[in-house]
């Protein structure tokens, strides 16, 4: 399952029900105390049910009643689910999906002498009398209901509640379906919720203000798991040794008591030699040391947080594998205590995680350096309007202006160049190809080094993200360059010609449109074949290199499924992985000579030379 929406009501600063749409990668932006952390805490309460959470102080101070609610809406639902005996059914057949065909689970917390919780499915469910409560009826009452309605169950397996419910529902031609709160907290319906709950994704929250030592619970858990796994392979031999040791120690203890008896028989009668064996995993502990055996606990806060974050990822992945579900990583302010280079590495890591099937990442930040690296479609601005929390989608033009106003763009004084590209894959391509040329002695800049030193800032253009920053970049009087994919085959004009013309009309601004389809077409065919034997591409300027690469890799995998038989979503996922591999592993095998062969008009060297002049000015 994947989490697509969350709704919060009467929880902390969220008084009215607030709906938040989520993507595979979602970045919450806002000033301090805007309400970002409350979103993450609400999800933590929903998924992990921490002890003593929520508490009475989490209820909005101006709530009209004593109830707060947190709802999660899921897509990519399991094709089948077993909720009765061993008989498979679907959530749709049980009328447990909402009007959009999604699973919507609502948890309501009532504040009184103690906090009580109820769970509901918000579903397009039968509302007609005698058909609206079947999920709450046990087997005996289901049979009685069928009898009362004169429904024959002679051909129905009456040992399976699902089949009885289906027979009753199918007997009516007017179930009067309507959006209903189906109570999953009582009777038979609770057993259904107990079967759904293990299917939910793992939710793993990493807070910005948590302790950061290698003795933190999340740090220790994956290491403890590793110890248990290592011991399990040696357990028989270890137990044999333990028994021998126990026998010898027991004999010594018995002789000791015998000697005591010679001196004090009364004392000896009170003694009973007993040898116990601890669990093997309790005998081992793990800590990390760095240079010169310095414990991680004594390292800088940024290093501790970086290491702990990856401990945290390891534990979440382990839990997900054990449950066979997806995982949601929620990370508050990943930039905290991190050097800008580490921030960039974290962003790359989060984007890689999202490329993994069944993984989602939720981030929060109030740092423009991080925000400007993401496609604006992933951004959510958390803001207050007359005391009411609003969640504004970054893909809206009005929202981009508000994000700019809320965060601004604050480059360091060392920044000399803004370089706009299509997305993260193009950033990788340009970083690698420029280093290859620079290392071979050519007079072009190493763009990766320029970025790391703070002289160059990459600005992803994907999803018109440039609109988020373009109105502010002019204010800094820095050189701006944009590399835009042509996409279309001549004589058709380039897809973004008007955008490029607009850039070129401005001062200190230069836009280039590729002569080939996209940057992947500048990777020599022989290099691709060296990594992917059987690659079907011919090295043509407008062939779809990522698609051909993904298709070749898929067919070579021996999965048995033809490329043509895959659905579009699966193809897109494989093509995304292909683009990443092409722009990292494959392009790194290029040489200046191969680039000359594939880029006969010297486009890439021309771009780099002009960017280099601006960096050296």
Explain what the structure shows.
A hairpin with a 2-residue loop joins β5 (81-84) and β6 (87-89). Among the domains are: 2-22 and 48-203, no CATH class; 411-616, no CATH class. α12 (424-439) runs parallel beside α18 (568-586) and α17 (545-556) packs across α18. It has 20 helices and 18 strands. The chain is 39% helix and 18% strand. The strands form four sheets. A six-stranded antiparallel sheet has the order 2-1-4-7-8-9, with helices on one face. By secondary structure, the protein is an alpha/beta fold. It is globular. The model is unreliable at 463-468 (pLDDT under 50).
Using the CA coordinates, give the radius of gyration.
Answer: 31 Å
Strand portion: 15-25%
Average pLDDT: 85
Helical/strand content category? alpha/beta
Q: Can you count the helices?
A: 20
Question: Uncertain runs with pLDDT below 50, 5 residues or more?
Answer: 463-468
Number of strands: 18
Largest sheet: 6 strands, antiparallel
Distance between the termini: 52 Å
What gross morphology would you assign? globular
Percent of residues in helical segments? 25-40%
Spatial order of strands in the largest sheet: 2-1-4-7-8-9
């Amino acid at each position: 399952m994947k989490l697509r929406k969350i709704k919060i009501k009467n929880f902390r600063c969220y008084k009215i029900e607030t709906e938040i749409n989520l993507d595979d990668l979602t970045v919450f932006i806002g000033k301090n105390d805007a309400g970002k952390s409350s979103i993450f805490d609400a999800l933590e309460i929903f998924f992990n049910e921490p002890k003593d959470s929520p508490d009475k102080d989490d209820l909005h101070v101006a709530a009209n009643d004593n109830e707060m609610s947190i709802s999660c809406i899921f897509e990519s639902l399991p094709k089948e689910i077993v909720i009765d005996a061993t008989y498979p059914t679907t959530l749709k057949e049980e009328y447990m999906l909402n009007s959009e065909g999604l699973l919507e689970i609502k948890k309501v917390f009532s504040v009184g002498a103690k906090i009580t919780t109820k769970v509901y499915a918000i579903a397009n469910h039968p509302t007609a009398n005698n058909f609206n409560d079947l999920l709450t009826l046990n087997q005996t009452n289901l049979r009685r209901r069928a009898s009362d309605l004169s429904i024959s169950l002679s051909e129905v397996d009456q040992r399976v509640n699902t089949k009885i419910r289906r027979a009753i529902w199918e007997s009516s031609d007017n179930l009067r379906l309507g959006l209903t709160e189906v109570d999953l907290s009582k009777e038979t319906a609770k057993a259904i919720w107990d079967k759904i709950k293990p299917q939910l994704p793992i939710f793993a929250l990493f807070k910005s203000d948590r302790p950061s030592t290698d003795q933190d619970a999340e740090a220790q858990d994956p290491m403890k798991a590793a110890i248990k796994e290592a011991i399990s392979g040696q357990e028989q031999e270890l137990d044999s040794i333990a028994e021998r040791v126990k026998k010898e120690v027991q004999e010594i203890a018995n002789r000791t008591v015998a000697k005591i008896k010679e001196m004090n028989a009364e004392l000896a009668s009170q003694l009973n030699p007993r040898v116990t064996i601890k669990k093997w995993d309790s005998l081992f502990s793990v800590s990390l040391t760095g240079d010169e055996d310095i414990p991680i606990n004594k390292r800088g806060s940024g290093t501790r947080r970086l290491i702990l974050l990856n401990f945290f990822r390891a534990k979440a992945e382990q839990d997900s594998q054990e449950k066979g579900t997806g995982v949601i990583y929620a990370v508050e302010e990943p930039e905290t205590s991190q050097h800008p280079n580490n921030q960039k590495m974290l962003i790359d890591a989060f984007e890689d995680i999202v490329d993994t099937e069944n993984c989602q990442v939720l981030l929060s930040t109030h740092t423009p350096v991080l925000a400007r690296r993401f496609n604006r479609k992933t951004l959510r601005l958390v803001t207050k309007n007359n005391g009411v929390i609003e969640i504004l989608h970054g893909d809206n033009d009005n929202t981009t202006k508000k994000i700019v106003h809320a965060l601004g763009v604050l480059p360091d004084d060392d920044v000399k160049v803004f370089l706009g590209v299509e997305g993260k894959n193009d950033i990788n391509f340009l970083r690698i190809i420029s280093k290859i040329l620079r290392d071979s002695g050519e007079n072009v800049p190493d763009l990766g080094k320029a970025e790391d030193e703070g002289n160059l800032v990459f600005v992803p253009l994907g999803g018109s993200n440039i609109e988020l920053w373009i109105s502010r970049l002019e204010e800094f009087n820095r050189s701006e360059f944009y590399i835009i994919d042509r996409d279309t085959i001549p004589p058709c004009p380039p897809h973004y010609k008007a955008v490029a013309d607009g850039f070129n009309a401005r001062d200190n601004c230069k836009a280039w449109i590729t002569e080939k389809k996209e940057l992947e077409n500048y990777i020599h065919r022989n290099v691709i074949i060296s990594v992917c034997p059987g690659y079907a591409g011919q090295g043509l300027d407008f062939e779809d290199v990522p698609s051909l690469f993904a298709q070749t890799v898929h067919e070579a995998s021996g999965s048995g499924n033809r490329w043509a038989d895959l659905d579009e979503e699966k193809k897109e996922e494989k093509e995304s992985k292909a683009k990443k591999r092409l722009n990292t592993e494959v392009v790194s095998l290029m040489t200046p000579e191969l680039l000359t062969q594939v880029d006969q008009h010297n486009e890439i060297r021309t771009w780099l030379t002009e960017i280099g002049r601006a960096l050296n000015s």
